[in-house]
Amino acid sequence: MKVNSARFLADLHALRQFGASGVGKGVVRPAFSRADIAAREWLTGRMREAGLKPQLDPVGNLFGLAGGRGVLLGSHSDSQPEGGWLDGALGVIAGLEVARAAREAGGPAVSVISFQDEEGRYGALTGSSVWSGGLLPEVADAMLSADGETFAEARARVAHLAGGRVDPAQFTSFIEMHIEQGPWLQQANDAVGVVTSIVGLRGLDIVFEGQQNHAGTTAMHVRRDAFQGLAAFNARLNDRLPGVATERSVWTIGEVALSPNASSIIPGRVAFHVQWRDAETERLDRMEAIIRSAADDIAALRGLKLTVSARPPLAPVAMDGDLQAVLSDAADAVVPGRWQAMPSGAVHDASNVARLMPVAMVFVPSIGGISHDFAEDTDEADLVAGLEVLAEAVARM
Ligand code: HGY
Ligand code: MN
Ligand code: MN
């Protein structure tokens, strides 16, 4: 099986044009946006040209089916609101290239997938969660984007292109190639990472409601200031979470809406999302207890009304041992001495697909460890080396 690196790179750069941000190689290609739908239509054509049977499932996952039973390769092609050109897209195009090379070599059967809404515009890894049975379609349909559109309304835009659910029984296993999105491979000057496990992820949507009032005439001691509630809550997390955390435990408040967000008005309301991740379920539980009790304590101390709702959690997932061994042997053959086994601090569709079949992941370095940013990038030599490791592993399987 011989991959064609020029064809692979050309398709990666072609996909980058859909939602090109105009800043570096960045993309803005959120799930079900015009750019995402155009990208999926382009991918459909490339899959057909590769001899695969394209099938869009009811929630926007785009499969390229080989027909025979065999490995499924892929990732997602939707992006963060400010995304890089490789997050997700790399795994889809690498899968397509290995599928083409396999066909040109007369086998094995290799199918390809681009999952929908991995980046959670509506839910969290929504497409692979529904396909894998981790999320009921009716629950997904009610999920809302930040601009107030339901998943149901979004997926209705491509209903005319959609077929039925794809039967997972035709796939023996799933391998997802992805950028590392962290600094470790570059720091070690390694070209490839064979992933051992994927962290678990949880999140809470929290609202503090106090009293909107005049910023000049309201004495400090009578205020019920929602922003001060958030500030105190955040200080308490940073005070208490390190006590249960390892150096790879993380927590983030990345989404905040302050109302009415005016400089002379004491904010009466703040709605925000707190997300945390760890490799161990028990530690995720302990972090959750601290986060929930901090919200309760601050609300009580500051006379704020508290509302808390949880987003669908993702459990930590170990990668399949046999697949890891095949990927390790392939890495030894292609990039001897320049690869390492490593955990994933990002979550991936493989976390969901693990409900259905053995899964594994292969990483390539991220320059400067940057991702979820227009500046995300990887040296093309590393992209090709990762592709060759993926192809070598599939050939060995
Ligand atoms: O956030 C993540 O880990 C993934 O890139 N959506
Ligand atoms: Mn991402
Ligand atoms: Mn991703």
Quantity of strands, as a count: 15
What's the shape? globular
Give the bound compounds. Answer: (2S)-amino(hydroxy)ethanoic acid, manganese (II) ion
Count of alpha and pi helical runs: 12
Determine the oligomeric state from the structure.
Answer: single chain
Helix content percent band = 25-40%
User: How far from one another are the termini?
Assistant: 12 Å
Element string (H = helix, E = strand)? HHEEEHEHHHEHEEEHEEEHEEHEHEH
Largest sheet: 9 strands, mixed
Percent of residues in beta strands: 15-25%
* Low-pLDDT segments, ≥5 res: none
Structural class: alpha/beta
Integer average pLDDT:
97
Work out the radius of gyration: 22 Å
Task: Compose a concise summary of this entry.
The protein has twelve helices and 15 strands. 35% of the residues lie in helices and 23% in strands.
Observed structural traits:
397 residues, alpha/beta, 9-stranded mixed β-sheet, 4-stranded antiparallel β-sheet, 12 helices, 15 strands, 23% strand, globular, binds (2S)-amino(hydroxy)ethanoic acid, binds manganese (II) ion
Description:
The protein is an alpha/beta fold and 397 residues long. Helix content is 35%, strand content 23%. It has twelve helices and 15 strands. The strands form three sheets. Strands 1, 2, 3, 4, 5, 6, 13, 14 and 15 form a nine-stranded mixed β-sheet that branches. Strand 3 (70-76), helix 3 and strand 4 (110-115) form a beta-alpha-beta unit. Helix 1 runs antiparallel to helix 3 (89-104), helix 8 (226-240) runs antiparallel to helix 9 and helix 10 crosses helix 12 (380-396). The structure holds (2S)-amino(hydroxy)ethanoic acid and manganese (II) ion (2 copies). The site of (2S)-amino(hydroxy)ethanoic acid has 4 residues, from loops.
